[in-house]
């Protein structure tokens, strides 16, 4: 009989409360190939290299070899020229951070650097703006949720160090007009980064399968760098992405070296120093295991699942697809008969995790699905769950936030809130509660929480969720015996 106090048994018990990472039902955060052998190879490779350190390529040359091969595969997918170089990072956010930092540092003559973003660009660019002191210039998108090339071009000025486009955008799953925007950036001598963290490992195969894919790779003149996440549609273990630059000169400002201390001369290609070899080895092994034809097959499955989801949504009068998807991301909206946050809860209750997206600008709340190859085998189950969830949400009626509460929230200044104010708001919103023994309790259903967040300003949402995270991450003492 297993010892329930052993670390591994405790891990299994703890994991019981987590979302499933296999089975194709978690439609955010994880990407499931649906192939058990891929998962087995990944686990063994990660374990084999868990103690290795990619900090020094001369100490662990096998990791350098694997990274160079992964970058080479990415270059082939992205139509990169022979001059292209790249770096394996910890994920899409780090790839984006490095693209922004490198662009900033390539222009030391610019005192107040700016980057031009479509309003749909990933929040990681705002994080980079915050970290690196680069002003984010947001440009409204068109009715099709794609970047507006003319507006993007007009926003470029002498202080612009980077222009950004998405392939596809996360919130709506559409590919921006990369060729037009990149041409405008090139005409001003400005770098153009394509955020293909989601699409980079699936759009090339979609094109090979005969899908209509807008130009977005290095085949487009003016594209200077592309980020593509291997831990998404390369179906690799969490913790890897690839950032590719058109040539070495573009990448060079990304590197950091320091001999200004008595220890070893620090030399880093990424924001990290010590890097576990586990994710690198796991990614390399998975890419080798699946291979080119395997990725073509998996892309076909994922896209077939997308088509089935679009079809099933069309059969539900209360639902619509916000915009036809260009890749593997589907965004749903509801009519007045069906509350989107309640629908989200109902789907989760039936074993399908989908991600609510709050109102933004003139657009109301939506529901996001990241579809994987592993989802295809379960689309009939999703159809049944979706139909039942819509009926349940309609029967429940809309989630209403008291008008006085709305007025109170609107009158608050997020920057002026203290801890007691935030504690009260968190309790009122239902984000946190306290059990009888004083432990923090999370809500089992989120519709009322999301409805309250939806009426709050973006600044208030940020303040509340930062406070929420702060209260979640508190020490648990007395663990070691």
From TrEMBL:
Keyword Lyase on entry: yes
Cited Pfam families: Pyridoxal_deC
Superkingdom in the source lineage: Bacteria
Gene3D superfamilies noted in UniProt: Aspartate Aminotransferase, domain 1, Type I PLP-dependent aspartate aminotransferase-like (Major domain)
Cofactor(s) the protein requires to work: pyridoxal 5'-phosphate
Keywords for this protein: Lyase, Pyridoxal phosphate
Family: Belongs to the group II decarboxylase family. Sphingosine-1-phosphate lyase subfamily.
Designated name of the protein: Pyridoxal phosphate-dependent decarboxylase family protein
Annotated source species: Nocardioides zeicaulis
